[in-house]
Structures are given as C-alpha cells and as structure tokens.
Amino acid sequence: MPALLLAARGAVHRSARTGALRGGRGSAASRRRAQPGLVEGADLDRVWGGASVYDVDLDQERAAVGFWLASRARGRSVATRTLRLLSRWAFDQLAVARLELTCAPDNVASQRVADRCGFVREGVLRSHMRFQGERRDTVVFSLLPGELR
Ligand SMILES: CC(C)(COP(=O)(O)OP(=O)(O)OC[C@H]1O[C@@H](n2cnc3c(N)ncnc32)[C@H](O)[C@@H]1OP(=O)(O)O)[C@@H](O)C(=O)NCCC(=O)NCCS
C-alpha cells in the first residue's frame, strides 16, 4: 500500500493551533501548488507516481487536481485511491467548494479514475491547448464536496 506524502509549499501551511494544513489568503496566495509524492510503503526511495493540487484559488474556493503513475504502479487502483485521498484533503484542509480535473479526450484511464471517485464530466473545451504541434481538446470534470465516492 503506497503512502501519500504531502509536501506542500507556498502559502499552504500547518496551523500552530490545530495542526491542520491550511491555505493562505489574498491575491498573492491565491494560486499555490501542493505537491504530494506517492511512494511505496515498503521502500520510501521508490516513487510510484505523483499527484498535485494546483491552481488553488482560495478566494473562489476552488482548485484543480492532477496525477500520474509509473507504468509498474498502474492497474491496481492506486490512482483511484490517490485521487480520493487528495480530494478529501483539498476539501477538508483547503476548504475548497469545487475541484477540477482535466485530461485529453483519449485518456480513458484518467476518465475512468475520475468517474470512480464521483467526478462529473462537464464537457469539452474545444481546441484548448497546443500539443505535439497540433491543437488538442480538453475534457473537464468537476467534483463538489458531497459527491466524493
Ligand atoms: C491515469 C493513470 C494514473 C491511471 O492509472 P491506473 O490507476 O493504473 O488506472 P487503471 O489501469 O486501473 O485503469 C483505470 C480504468 O481505465 C481503464 N483503462 C486503462 N487504460 C485504458 C485504455 N488504454 N483504454 C481503455 N480503458 C483503459 C481500466 O480498464 C480501468 O477501468 P475500470 O475502472 O473499468 O476498471 C495512468 O494511466 C497514468 O499515469 N497515465 C499517464 C498520466 C496521466 O494521464 N495522468 C492524468 C492526467 S489528468
């Protein structure tokens, strides 16, 4: 069972009073990236993948989540468990009201993982970004606090 290490930086800090991780306030603190690393429990030097909470906007109470796994770690529901942990952390500790997840339309594995966790597919941003010399669509999912599965 891998462990999720939270290596938060920027305005995301631990409260001296409650011990909880909290985000800062104000425009300079509104876009922060917390970057957990995913490591195998039996061997802390062996990284399985990564996951992050990014585009944190505390004024609007929303953030985005992303993740990746090394090929040896795939196919074992690790991404699903990671996304659940990260989403719960973001709702509880950053107090966001909306989490966004985006991926390429052909990234079926990511979309399955998002669906398993309760993310709702909102639609497609057409010609959203440059990718390998072409323009690429992006699929957008979102999760609200009561929807996490
Ligand atoms: C996305 C990623 C983390 C998922 O890894 P994983 O946890 O091992 O996912 P799984 O292999 O368990 O697959 C999840 C689901 O997708 C399905 N799937 C996986 N690859 C597939 C493919 N090429 N075509 C169709 N379905 C696929 C699996 O069958 C599974 O379906 P199920 O829920 O019905 O069982 C991993 O593929 C990855 O790191 N990809 C590269 C980085 C990336 O895309 N990150 C996400 C950006 S948002």
TrEMBL record:
InterPro entries: Acyl_CoA_acyltransferase (IPR016181), GNAT_dom (IPR000182), Ribosomal_N-acetyltransferase (IPR051908)
Transmembrane segments: none
EC number of the protein: 2.3.-.-
UniProt keywords, alphabetically: Acyltransferase, Transferase
Domain N-acetyltransferase as annotated: residue spans: 1-146
Broad EC category: transferase
Gene3D superfamilies: 3.40.630.30
Pfam families for this protein: Acetyltransf_3
GO molecular function: acyltransferase activity
Name of the protein in question: GNAT family N-acetyltransferase
Organism: Actinomadura rugatobispora
